[in-house]
Amino acid sequence: MLAVKSILVSQPRPEGDKSPYFDLADKYKLKIDFRQFIKVEGVDAKDFRAQKVNLQDHTAIILTSKVAVDHFFRIAEETRFEVPDTMKYFCITEAVALYLQKYVTYRKRKIFFGKQTIDELAEIMKKHKEEKFLLPCTDILRDIIPDTLENQLLPFTKVILYRTVAADLSDLENVYYDMLVFFSPGGIESLFKNFPDFKQNETVIAAFGPTTANAVVKHNLRLDVHAPHPKAPSMVGAIELFIKEQLKKK
After folding, report:
1. Given 164, 181, 198, which residue is the final one in a domain?
2. CA-CA to 212 of 20 to 30 Å: which in 133, 193, 226, 233?
3. What is the pLDDT of residue 243?
4. Domain boundaries, position 10
């Protein structure tokens, strides 16, 4: 396997000048580029109505991302639903909760948040079982979220407000990288939608999380770098471990 000199990360470039990726690039003299392989498109009002979900029937919203926040308030506006001041918001993290300030007066609303996982948020929601929860989500929602809510016997309605689709990567057709880094199954799907004849050959494939790793294997690709694991909880750490191993073999 060739030494890694160039890496394409299938995410947007980090904001600002500080990032572990930039430190990694400086340390090992790497070229690291960033390109989002997937994009989010909102479901229109017609497709929303076809799901036969009435926003007025719900007293609380479960928000698992900032994207979910944006699309909930977008569809509310498009369908002329005036979100009542009494609406309660249950957010997966404090960052998502604070993002609500874009749409509501934060201090005047009933807003709850967990630390990071749906399990933590479900524990908070169990104290409010009398609420009728709405879960705005994507078409590729991870099973762990609805499964956790169902296991906790929390009443909720799922509504798809946005879809994840492949971005146009045609400009990369004749551009080659030693390593491709993926963070979701959607990124793998986008790779093959853009380049149906893609052959891995010596290209190193890195994947974050079990579902992404499974998608790599499902597409008959070789999984070379996998995070998180005990020695490398982050993707940057896993990439560095791989590079160190490659340098030892030189």
Report:
1. 164
2. 133
3. 94
4. 6-37+169-248
